[in-house]
């Protein structure tokens, strides 16, 4: 590691533009996409803003650490899926759940009553062809202007990245899983 001088000047001027709702994408192969989205949800909730989290690949009964905590503090989180596809018995059923779930998410976004709507792992139903990309893009474009939408999942479609305001790729440098460490409570779920 190389030591360098700490900055002594401001690095940027205050932006001149207007504040508005953002499309924020957390994608990439490294860990942290969902947890960063949940961090944003916490931050917004801390400011007294209405937040709703939808999870496209989790079952409605999921009880991970985040579900327990969000229940305690009053952030609604809703699983819309039936788990990952290799666990699913019936892919047509998974596709139908994704479409039904999307209708709910779309209504919440368009309703304009939420400051932030999180669409966790929405990239998978898009990649698997369960949800038409065009419908999602249309909703993102047509949404009320102050609504922030956060999308997560690997391989986010380029069309969404282009439309988005802030896109972060979680770059895989290492993952404990590769060294044989299984998922752990409080870290993975
Ligand atoms: P997290 O929920 O921890 O923020 P994530 O949303 O970035 O992770 P997903 O692709 O949703 O990652 O992965 C689901 C689970 O798989 C997570 O619990 C995560 O820790 C784990 N995971 C993430 N990246 C990898 C990886 N490269 N190899 C194996 N498991 C991973
Ligand atoms: Mg995730």
Describe this structure in words.
This protein has 189 residues and is an alpha/beta fold. It has a single domain (23-169), classed as P-loop containing nucleotide triphosphate hydrolases (Rossmann fold, 3-Layer(aba) Sandwich), CATH 3.40.50.300. It has helices at 33-46, 65-73, 91-111, 123-127, 133-142, 158-163; strands at residues 23-27, 51-55, 77-79, 116-120, 148-152, 166-169. Strand 2, helix 2 and strand 3 form a beta-alpha-beta unit. The radius of gyration is 18 Å and the shape is globular. It starts with 22 loop residues before the first strand and ends in a 20-residue tail after the last strand. The structure holds adenosine-5'-triphosphate and magnesium ion. Magnesium ion binds next to helix 1.
For the structure shown, list the relevant keywords:
EC 2.5.1.17; alpha/beta; binds adenosine-5'-triphosphate; 6 helices; 189 residues; 34% helix; CblAdoTrfase_CobA; 6 strands; Rossmann fold; binds magnesium ion; P-loop_NTPase; single chain; porphyrin biosynthesis; 14% strand; six-stranded parallel beta sheet; corrinoid adenosyltransferase activity
